[in-house]
Amino acid sequence: MGLMQCERSGSKNSIDRLLHFAARLQKICCNVVNTTPLCLSHSHNRGMLLCSLGALLLLFSSVDVWYFLRGVVVAVQAWFLPPVWDVLAEQSVPGRVLPHDLDYMGHMNNARYLRECDFARFHYYMRNGIFRTLHSLRATMVVGASTIRYRRSLAFWEAFDLRTRIVAWDDKSFFVEQQFVSQRDGFISAVMLCRQNVLRSNPESILQLLCKRKVECPDYPEELQHWISFISASSQALRAQSGLKDTTAESSQENTGEQENVGEQEHLEDKDK
């Protein structure tokens, strides 16, 4: 119930802000065509049409409207689907390459892969209860790092499955793997690794509250260990370049690797999830 109220409240607030912004844009458009908002209450059909079209044009050019609408659709879909009780179980959502996903070469734009991964993680956390648990703990998660490898392009109208699963975690972050699998032949067209930093809590507390028991972390795959080593090396190099003292400890292959401190996280280009 807490998650449902939270999602309803968040969606309602976003919609209210968009409507308020659209109303302000409409007033501007009415002034441009030498009319006022009162044109809506008279027979000035032409002025009303210009106001509405102008407001929509400014709205779509100023705000990524489709992103917010897509977020609402994903939330509603996950809300009405049955929950996934196994928090480590892989989940799959279908997708298709649409015209607005294409680049100049007629393939799915590279940036669209990351966008689709964002929505898939949102769907994933809603169904397995992690979002609900985050809300209970007054915690949140941000993307601390991500790496994607493109193996084969996705063509126009090609159908695919986007598979998401938690691979492992440490005392500060979840490590998530996402795969774009072509429905045509099962080929993995792209694979992404993502580190989700937990703020104001930790993965162990989240899983303990969600599962009502201690959940053992799976063994780290070899590619994940190398990826964490890359992040650690990059962190040290950037600290040296910025003249900052490296206060993080080196880790062995059995644990998660180096973690950035709070000061560095504030300088990362993180996104809320």
Brief descriptors of the model:
disordered C terminus, 5-stranded antiparallel beta sheet, alpha+beta, Thiol Ester Dehydrase, Chain A, 46% helix, 8 helices, 2 domains, 273 residues, single chain
Draw up the topology in text.
Elements: H1 2-32, H2 45-62, H3 65-80, E1 91-96, H4 110-128, H5 130-136, E2 140-150, E3 159-169, E4 173-182, E5 188-199, H6 203-211, H7 222-242, H8 262-265
Antiparallel strand pairs: 1-3, 2-5, 3-4, 4-5
Helix pairs in contact: 1-2, 1-3, 1-5, 3-4
Family: Belongs to the THEM6 family.
Region (Disordered): 241-273
Pfam families: 4HBT_2 (PF13279)
Characterization of this structure:
- The structure is a single chain.
- The chain has 273 residues and is α+β, with helices and mostly antiparallel strands.
- The protein has two domains: 1-63, no CATH class; 72-220, Hotdog Thioesterase (Thiol Ester Dehydrase, Chain A, Roll), CATH 3.10.129.
- 46% of the residues lie in helices and 18% in strands.
- It contains eight helices and five strands, in the order αααβααββββααα.
- It has a five-stranded antiparallel β-sheet with strand order 1-3-4-5-2, with helices on both faces.
- α1 crosses α2 (45-62), α1 packs antiparallel against α3 and α3 (65-80) packs parallel to α4.
- The longest helix is centred in the N-terminal third of the chain and has 31 residues, at 2-32.
- Residues 1-11, 35-41 and 248-273 have low confidence and may be disordered.
